[in-house]
What does this fold into?
Amino acid sequence: MSAFVDFKNVWLAYNEELLAQGQFAVEDISLQVTEGEFIAIVGPSGCGKSTFMKLATGLRRPSKGTVVIDGQPVTGPLKITGMAFQAPSLLPWRTTVQNVMLPLEIVEPYRSQFKAKKKEFEAKARQLLQSVGLAGYEDKFPWQLSGGMQQRASICRALVHEPKMLLLDEPFGALDAFTREELWCALRDLHAAQKFNVILVTHDLRESVFLADTVYCMSRSPGRFVAKRQIELPRPRDLEVTYTPQFTDIVHELRGHIGAHRNAIGKSGAAAPQ
It folds into this structure.
Protein backbone atom coordinates (compact mmCIF):
# COMPACT_ATOMS: atom_id res chain seq x y z
CA MET A 1 0.00 0.00 0.00
CA SER A 2 1.40 3.42 -0.96
CA ALA A 3 1.76 6.00 1.82
CA PHE A 4 -0.86 8.75 2.12
CA VAL A 5 1.80 11.12 3.53
CA ASP A 6 5.36 10.58 2.31
CA PHE A 7 8.27 12.78 3.44
CA LYS A 8 11.60 11.78 1.90
CA ASN A 9 14.82 13.33 3.25
CA VAL A 10 13.21 16.72 3.83
CA TRP A 11 15.32 19.68 4.96
CA LEU A 12 14.05 23.24 5.38
CA ALA A 13 15.93 26.51 5.82
CA TYR A 14 13.70 29.55 6.18
CA ASN A 15 15.53 31.72 3.65
CA GLU A 16 18.38 31.65 1.14
CA GLU A 17 20.84 33.22 3.57
CA LEU A 18 20.24 30.54 6.21
CA LEU A 19 20.39 27.87 3.51
CA ALA A 20 23.80 29.17 2.38
CA GLN A 21 24.97 29.01 6.02
CA GLY A 22 23.63 25.46 6.43
CA GLN A 23 21.21 26.52 9.17
CA PHE A 24 18.07 24.38 8.94
CA ALA A 25 14.83 24.45 10.94
CA VAL A 26 14.29 20.74 10.27
CA GLU A 27 16.71 18.27 8.78
CA ASP A 28 16.53 14.86 7.14
CA ILE A 29 12.84 14.26 7.92
CA SER A 30 11.51 11.01 6.46
CA LEU A 31 8.20 9.35 7.31
CA GLN A 32 5.43 7.42 5.64
CA VAL A 33 1.87 7.57 6.95
CA THR A 34 -0.81 5.14 5.78
CA GLU A 35 -4.33 6.25 4.85
CA GLY A 36 -6.48 6.86 7.93
CA GLU A 37 -3.51 6.75 10.32
CA PHE A 38 -3.35 9.09 13.34
CA ILE A 39 0.19 10.27 14.07
CA ALA A 40 1.46 12.57 16.81
CA ILE A 41 4.69 14.58 16.83
CA VAL A 42 6.13 15.47 20.22
CA GLY A 43 9.19 17.36 21.31
CA PRO A 44 10.46 20.42 23.16
CA SER A 45 9.52 23.99 22.22
CA GLY A 46 11.34 25.23 19.16
CA CYS A 47 12.12 21.77 17.80
CA GLY A 48 10.40 22.28 14.45
CA LYS A 49 7.00 20.68 15.10
CA SER A 50 5.12 23.65 13.65
CA THR A 51 7.59 23.85 10.76
CA PHE A 52 6.71 20.25 9.97
CA MET A 53 3.04 21.28 9.86
CA LYS A 54 3.80 24.05 7.35
CA LEU A 55 5.55 21.49 5.14
CA ALA A 56 2.59 19.09 5.44
CA THR A 57 0.09 21.77 4.40
CA GLY A 58 2.16 23.13 1.54
CA LEU A 59 2.60 26.52 3.24
CA ARG A 60 6.37 25.89 3.03
CA ARG A 61 8.34 24.13 0.32
CA PRO A 62 11.32 22.02 1.41
CA SER A 63 14.83 23.27 0.68
CA LYS A 64 15.82 19.67 -0.03
CA GLY A 65 13.81 16.46 -0.34
CA THR A 66 10.21 15.77 -1.37
CA VAL A 67 6.75 15.83 0.23
CA VAL A 68 4.00 13.75 -1.42
CA ILE A 69 0.46 13.68 -0.01
CA ASP A 70 -2.40 11.60 -1.42
CA GLY A 71 -0.18 10.64 -4.35
CA GLN A 72 0.57 14.23 -5.38
CA PRO A 73 3.80 16.23 -4.87
CA VAL A 74 3.09 19.19 -2.58
CA THR A 75 3.85 22.39 -4.48
CA GLY A 76 1.52 24.83 -2.72
CA PRO A 77 -1.26 25.06 -0.11
CA LEU A 78 -3.36 21.89 0.03
CA LYS A 79 -7.14 21.91 -0.28
CA ILE A 80 -7.59 18.44 1.21
CA THR A 81 -6.65 19.47 4.75
CA GLY A 82 -8.44 20.98 7.73
CA MET A 83 -6.52 22.77 10.50
CA ALA A 84 -7.11 23.69 14.14
CA PHE A 85 -4.73 25.56 16.43
CA GLN A 86 -4.30 26.31 20.13
CA ALA A 87 -6.42 29.48 19.79
CA PRO A 88 -9.88 28.66 18.38
CA SER A 89 -9.99 32.00 16.44
CA LEU A 90 -13.75 31.93 15.93
CA LEU A 91 -15.22 35.07 14.36
CA PRO A 92 -17.02 36.90 17.20
CA TRP A 93 -19.80 38.31 15.01
CA ARG A 94 -20.85 34.87 13.73
CA THR A 95 -22.79 32.25 15.64
CA THR A 96 -21.19 28.90 16.34
CA VAL A 97 -22.91 27.19 13.40
CA GLN A 98 -22.02 30.10 11.11
CA ASN A 99 -18.39 29.80 12.18
CA VAL A 100 -18.40 26.07 11.43
CA MET A 101 -19.90 26.69 7.98
CA LEU A 102 -17.14 29.14 7.00
CA PRO A 103 -15.02 26.62 5.00
CA LEU A 104 -18.12 25.70 2.97
CA GLU A 105 -18.32 29.35 1.87
CA ILE A 106 -14.65 29.40 0.85
CA VAL A 107 -13.55 25.93 -0.33
CA GLU A 108 -14.59 24.44 -3.66
CA PRO A 109 -16.67 22.55 -4.64
CA TYR A 110 -18.84 23.76 -1.75
CA ARG A 111 -18.34 27.48 -2.41
CA SER A 112 -20.09 27.47 -5.81
CA GLN A 113 -22.96 25.42 -4.33
CA PHE A 114 -23.31 27.41 -1.11
CA LYS A 115 -26.35 29.53 -1.93
CA ALA A 116 -28.27 26.65 -3.43
CA LYS A 117 -27.38 24.16 -0.69
CA LYS A 118 -27.16 26.47 2.33
CA LYS A 119 -29.89 24.63 4.29
CA GLU A 120 -28.26 21.26 3.60
CA PHE A 121 -24.83 22.59 4.61
CA GLU A 122 -26.25 24.13 7.79
CA ALA A 123 -27.88 20.83 8.75
CA LYS A 124 -24.51 19.12 8.26
CA ALA A 125 -22.75 21.68 10.45
CA ARG A 126 -25.38 21.34 13.19
CA GLN A 127 -25.07 17.55 13.13
CA LEU A 128 -21.31 17.82 13.46
CA LEU A 129 -21.64 20.20 16.44
CA GLN A 130 -24.12 17.85 18.10
CA SER A 131 -21.70 14.94 17.66
CA VAL A 132 -19.11 16.74 19.83
CA GLY A 133 -21.57 17.66 22.58
CA LEU A 134 -22.56 21.15 21.44
CA ALA A 135 -26.28 20.51 20.95
CA GLY A 136 -28.12 23.62 22.08
CA TYR A 137 -25.13 25.91 21.50
CA GLU A 138 -25.27 26.07 17.70
CA ASP A 139 -26.82 29.56 17.67
CA LYS A 140 -24.73 31.00 20.50
CA PHE A 141 -21.88 33.42 19.80
CA PRO A 142 -18.26 32.49 20.65
CA TRP A 143 -18.21 34.79 23.68
CA GLN A 144 -21.09 32.75 25.13
CA LEU A 145 -19.04 29.53 25.00
CA SER A 146 -16.34 28.20 27.32
CA GLY A 147 -12.82 27.69 26.00
CA GLY A 148 -13.42 23.97 25.58
CA MET A 149 -16.65 24.58 23.68
CA GLN A 150 -14.90 27.04 21.38
CA GLN A 151 -12.20 24.47 20.64
CA ARG A 152 -14.83 21.81 19.85
CA ALA A 153 -16.39 24.26 17.39
CA SER A 154 -12.96 24.97 15.91
CA ILE A 155 -12.38 21.26 15.24
CA CYS A 156 -15.85 20.99 13.67
CA ARG A 157 -14.99 23.92 11.41
CA ALA A 158 -11.80 22.11 10.35
CA LEU A 159 -13.79 18.97 9.47
CA VAL A 160 -17.03 20.29 7.97
CA HIS A 161 -15.73 20.21 4.38
CA GLU A 162 -14.69 16.55 4.86
CA PRO A 163 -10.93 16.93 4.42
CA LYS A 164 -8.81 13.83 3.95
CA MET A 165 -6.37 15.06 6.60
CA LEU A 166 -6.75 17.01 9.85
CA LEU A 167 -3.74 18.98 11.12
CA LEU A 168 -3.81 19.92 14.81
CA ASP A 169 -1.19 22.26 16.27
CA GLU A 170 -1.35 22.15 20.10
CA PRO A 171 -5.16 22.25 19.92
CA PHE A 172 -5.80 21.54 23.60
CA GLY A 173 -2.76 23.25 25.13
CA ALA A 174 -4.67 26.19 26.65
CA LEU A 175 -7.38 24.06 28.30
CA ASP A 176 -7.61 22.65 31.81
CA ALA A 177 -6.86 18.95 32.30
CA PHE A 178 -10.49 17.81 32.57
CA THR A 179 -11.62 19.71 29.47
CA ARG A 180 -8.57 18.48 27.58
CA GLU A 181 -9.47 14.86 28.31
CA GLU A 182 -13.07 15.46 27.20
CA LEU A 183 -11.79 16.77 23.88
CA TRP A 184 -9.42 13.81 23.49
CA CYS A 185 -12.52 11.60 23.57
CA ALA A 186 -14.42 13.85 21.14
CA LEU A 187 -11.52 13.71 18.68
CA ARG A 188 -11.13 9.95 19.18
CA ASP A 189 -14.80 9.43 18.28
CA LEU A 190 -14.68 11.71 15.22
CA HIS A 191 -11.60 9.91 13.91
CA ALA A 192 -13.14 6.48 14.52
CA ALA A 193 -16.29 7.51 12.63
CA GLN A 194 -14.70 9.29 9.66
CA LYS A 195 -11.24 7.66 9.30
CA PHE A 196 -9.47 10.85 8.13
CA ASN A 197 -5.71 11.15 8.57
CA VAL A 198 -4.54 13.17 11.58
CA ILE A 199 -1.22 14.86 12.28
CA LEU A 200 -1.20 16.13 15.87
CA VAL A 201 1.58 18.34 17.18
CA THR A 202 1.68 18.41 20.99
CA HIS A 203 3.89 18.83 24.04
CA ASP A 204 1.65 16.44 25.98
CA LEU A 205 3.04 12.89 25.91
CA ARG A 206 -0.11 11.43 27.52
CA GLU A 207 -2.21 13.05 24.82
CA SER A 208 -0.04 11.60 22.06
CA VAL A 209 -0.14 8.07 23.48
CA PHE A 210 -3.91 8.14 24.10
CA LEU A 211 -4.83 9.40 20.62
CA ALA A 212 -2.19 8.28 18.13
CA ASP A 213 -1.40 5.11 16.23
CA THR A 214 2.24 6.24 15.92
CA VAL A 215 4.24 8.84 17.88
CA TYR A 216 7.35 10.56 16.51
CA CYS A 217 9.78 12.33 18.88
CA MET A 218 11.63 15.37 17.54
CA SER A 219 14.94 16.74 18.77
CA ARG A 220 15.60 20.37 19.62
CA SER A 221 16.33 22.62 16.61
CA PRO A 222 17.39 21.74 14.02
CA GLY A 223 14.48 19.34 14.32
CA ARG A 224 14.91 15.71 13.33
CA PHE A 225 13.13 12.55 14.37
CA VAL A 226 14.98 10.71 17.14
CA ALA A 227 12.38 8.01 17.81
CA LYS A 228 9.28 6.41 16.29
CA ARG A 229 6.89 4.47 18.55
CA GLN A 230 3.91 2.41 17.40
CA ILE A 231 1.15 2.58 20.05
CA GLU A 232 -0.23 -0.94 20.31
CA LEU A 233 -2.94 -0.10 22.83
CA PRO A 234 -6.21 -1.57 21.48
CA ARG A 235 -8.96 0.69 20.18
CA PRO A 236 -11.41 2.03 21.14
CA ARG A 237 -9.43 3.54 24.05
CA ASP A 238 -11.14 5.06 27.06
CA LEU A 239 -9.58 7.29 29.69
CA GLU A 240 -9.12 4.35 32.08
CA VAL A 241 -6.27 3.13 29.88
CA THR A 242 -4.23 6.22 30.87
CA TYR A 243 -3.92 4.79 34.40
CA THR A 244 -2.56 1.41 33.33
CA PRO A 245 1.10 0.37 33.66
CA GLN A 246 1.31 -0.32 29.92
CA PHE A 247 0.24 3.26 29.10
CA THR A 248 2.56 4.79 31.69
CA ASP A 249 5.49 2.72 30.42
CA ILE A 250 5.04 4.09 26.89
CA VAL A 251 4.88 7.68 28.20
CA HIS A 252 8.09 7.16 30.18
CA GLU A 253 9.77 5.58 27.17
CA LEU A 254 8.96 8.62 25.01
CA ARG A 255 10.10 10.99 27.75
CA GLY A 256 13.34 9.01 27.91
CA HIS A 257 13.97 9.49 24.17
CA ILE A 258 13.52 13.26 24.45
CA GLY A 259 15.51 13.46 27.70
CA ALA A 260 18.37 11.36 26.31
CA HIS A 261 18.72 13.65 23.32
CA ARG A 262 18.68 16.75 25.53
CA ASN A 263 21.43 15.27 27.71
CA ALA A 264 23.50 14.41 24.64
CA ILE A 265 23.25 18.02 23.45
CA GLY A 266 24.29 19.31 26.85
CA LYS A 267 27.33 17.04 27.00
CA SER A 268 28.41 18.00 23.47
CA GLY A 269 28.77 21.61 24.56
CA ALA A 270 25.84 22.98 22.57
CA ALA A 271 23.73 25.72 24.02
CA ALA A 272 21.71 24.58 27.04
CA PRO A 273 17.92 24.46 26.59
CA GLN A 274 16.16 27.67 27.60
About this structure: The CA atoms of residues 219 and 259 lie 10 Å apart. The radius of gyration is 19 Å. The longest strand covers residues 5-12.
